[in-house]
Amino acid sequence: MAKIVSSTDRSYLDEALRLLRQGELVCYPTDTVYGIGAAAGDDGAVRRLFAVKGRPLDKPLPLLIADAGDATRIADVTPLARILMGRFWPGGLTIVMRKAERFHSVALAGQETVALRVPDHPLVREIIRLLGEPITGTSANRAGARPPVSAAEVAFQLGDMVSLVINGGPCPRRLESTVIDITQDPPRILRDGVVRREELEEEMERQLG
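^ that's the sequence the OP posted. Answer follows.
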């Protein structure tokens, strides 16, 4: 069984960073659901994550970043992206953008796009900031299973397939992020979630006319 450490025990931070730098998988709470993290630049760790989830290697993984300003190193940040980032980040919106030419990660499954989010949870943002690179932001469950909203659910589903589960209590939203692809014209909502479709449509109409 994976080690479970409470977020009230600050030792979780050093341990999470050490494990991620060693290519291990760490599960963490967010504002939406619990996620399973690998350092985005560690190809071996990301491939292991695909295997743990039972996820096809041709299905890209979203990435989490610590701050909206980090997006420019990873993606082509368009005016529309800046509008959505300013309105919904940190929060429950994942934005699919064109990837920056210099950015590479096995998590993208060979695609020229990247799905990014800044979670509204200080714990995971601190991990990412100190790690110095994005981490994978996919839910901590086997493919097809219900996304976990507690550390106990993560441990039950993934057992000893991950090295660490940070117990931050129940996730407040208990629902996955909304995913919008802005590389298409018009933008397309790929998954309904925390941010309501009406909110997105109203914001884009207000800003863009």
